[in-house]
Structure formats: structure tokens, C-alpha cells
């Protein structure tokens, strides 16, 4: 972990060492094999091993003071661990101080990814550490694709009266919207019953609406999942 302290007019960078003390870094930048370049490499390695679920290497890197960096898409090590259901890695990262509600480029948190994939273990771990259960993402998708994913492609293509009255309907269906989906929305849409039950037990808001004014129960009705509808009563 790197901290910056002011010393007069010049900021000085320090790295946390293994004995919990801070050691000053030389004033160098990205020259190959420089201390700062090596620290950046530690961050890249942490992303790699978090993705692979290599808990031994993750713990070793955290002990060395690896920075908790994200990739160019805003994906943090915790996003990768949550998406791949690596519970031990999630625990280690959270105890190491990583942001539990870090957002990637489409505003998805690690909890979004865990719920989307139906990973009970990492969903439970994130909730235990206080992750925001009602956070909304801004995944971008066309209206047509959204309804196709709900199994309503025929409904859209048949052009019911409610859609026929919309001017330039074909252009409208190709328009890209931010979906504003919560973890509960995604778990319902993907049919992950156990994760839905877990989110509900932890206080997920069943009344929250997405971009199309759909609650999680509305989505359950549209995909004809009556078991899910009953859970969301």
C-alpha cells in the first residue's frame, strides 16, 4: 500500500512494509526496474492471481503492499474474484482494504457480478462485509436486446398496439439505454433462486425499478418464473 505525505512543498511517497512501517520511495517514476514500476507490476500480478483464484499468491502480494489497482475497464481484483466465485480471495481482498463497492466502467460493483452469475458464496461474503445491496448499474443495451433476453422477442416483433403507436419504432428499438439494474434484478432475470433468496433475507428492495420501470417481480412475471414471483410477493 502506498501513501503520500506532504514534506514542505514536495509530496513524498511511502510504501507499507511487512513490519507495518512506511519506507520512503526514491523519487523516480516509470523507468523500467524502478521501485514504482515494480510496485505497479505487483498490482498487475494481483489482478492476475485474483482472476485465477490463487489465494496463496494473493495473500503474498497483499503482504508485500501491492496496490489495489483496476484494469482499463475499471475491473478491480474484487470484481474478478466475485465473478469467478473465489470466496477466499474475496475475503482476503476485503480484509486487505479493497473497496467493497468499487465500480467498473459500467457502474457494476462486485456484488452485481456475483448476483448476475448466481454465485452464492461470493454474494454472501460481499453482503457480510456491507456491500451496497441496492446499487444500480448502467449497463448499456438496446431496447430490443433487453426484451429478447427476457424471452419477449416475439412480442416485440409482432408490434402490439402499444408499440405501433410509438413513432419511428425501429429506431427506438435500436436505441441504447442505461438499464439501472440492481443485483436483485440480475439474479431474478438469470433465474438464480438461491441468490434471490439470499438477497431478500439481507434486505434487498423489491420495489426498485430499472430503466423500463420494471421491478424484480415484473421481470419474474415476464420470464414466466412463478416460483420467483412468489418469492418476491
Automatic annotation (TrEMBL):
<dbReference type="Pfam" id="PF12796">
    <property type="entry name" value="Ank_2"/>
</dbReference>
<dbReference type="InterPro" id="IPR002110">
    <property type="entry name" value="Ankyrin_rpt"/>
</dbReference>
<feature type="repeat" description="ANK">
    <location>
        <begin position="179"/>
        <end position="211"/>
    </location>
</feature>
<dbReference type="InterPro" id="IPR036770">
    <property type="entry name" value="Ankyrin_rpt-contain_sf"/>
</dbReference>
<dbReference type="GO" id="GO:0045944">
    <property type="term" value="P:positive regulation of transcription by RNA polymerase II"/>
</dbReference>
<dbReference type="GO" id="GO:0000976">
    <property type="term" value="F:transcription cis-regulatory region binding"/>
</dbReference>
<feature type="repeat" description="ANK">
    <location>
        <begin position="106"/>
        <end position="138"/>
    </location>
</feature>
<dbReference type="GO" id="GO:0005634">
    <property type="term" value="C:nucleus"/>
</dbReference>
<keyword id="KW-0040">ANK repeat</keyword>
<dbReference type="Pfam" id="PF00023">
    <property type="entry name" value="Ank"/>
</dbReference>
<keyword id="KW-0677">Repeat</keyword>
<protein>
    <submittedName>
        <fullName>Uncharacterized protein</fullName>
    </submittedName>
</protein>
<feature type="repeat" description="ANK">
    <location>
        <begin position="73"/>
        <end position="105"/>
    </location>
</feature>
<dbReference type="InterPro" id="IPR050663">
    <property type="entry name" value="Ankyrin-SOCS_Box"/>
</dbReference>
Amino acid at each position: 500500500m502506498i501513501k503520500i505525505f506532504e514534506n514542505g512543498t514536495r509530496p513524498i511517497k511511502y510504501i507499507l512494509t511487512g513490519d507495518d512501517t512506511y519506507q520512503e520511495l526514491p523519487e523516480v517514476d516509470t523507468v523500467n526496474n524502478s521501485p514504482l514500476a515494480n510496485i505497479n507490476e505487483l498490482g498487475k500480478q494481483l489482478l492476475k492471481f485474483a482472476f485465477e483464484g490463487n489465494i496463496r499468491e494473493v495473500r503474498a502480494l497483499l503482504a508485500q503492499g501491492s496496490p489495489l489497482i483496476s484494469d482499463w475497464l475499471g475491473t478491480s481484483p474484487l470484481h474478478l474474484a466475485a465473478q469467478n466465485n473465489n470466496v477466499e480471495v474475496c475475503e482476503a481482498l476485503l480484509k486487505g482494504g479493497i473497496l467493497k463497492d468499487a465500480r467498473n466502467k459500467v457502474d457494476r460493483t462486485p456484488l452485481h457480478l456475483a448476483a448476475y452469475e448466481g454465485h452464492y458464496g461470493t454474494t454472501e461474503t460481499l453482503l457480510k462485509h456491507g456491500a451496497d445491496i441496492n446499487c444500480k448499474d448502467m449497463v448499456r443495451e438496446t431496447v430490443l436486446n433487453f426484451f429478447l433476453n427476457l424471452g419477449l422477442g416475439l412480442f416485440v416483433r409482432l408490434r402490439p398496439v402499444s408499440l405501433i403507436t410509438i413513432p419511428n419504432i425501429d429506431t427506438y428499438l435500436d436505441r441504447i439505454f442505461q438499464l439501472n439494474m440492481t443485483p436483485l434484478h440480475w439474479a431474478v432475470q438469470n433465474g438464480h433462486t438461491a441468490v434471490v433468496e439470499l438477497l431478500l433475507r439481507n434486505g434487498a428492495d423489491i420495489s426498485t425499478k430499472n430503466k423500463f420501470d420494471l421491478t424484480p417481480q415484473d421481470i419474474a412475471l415476464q420470464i414466466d418464473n412463478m416460483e420467483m414471483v412468489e418469492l418476491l410477493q
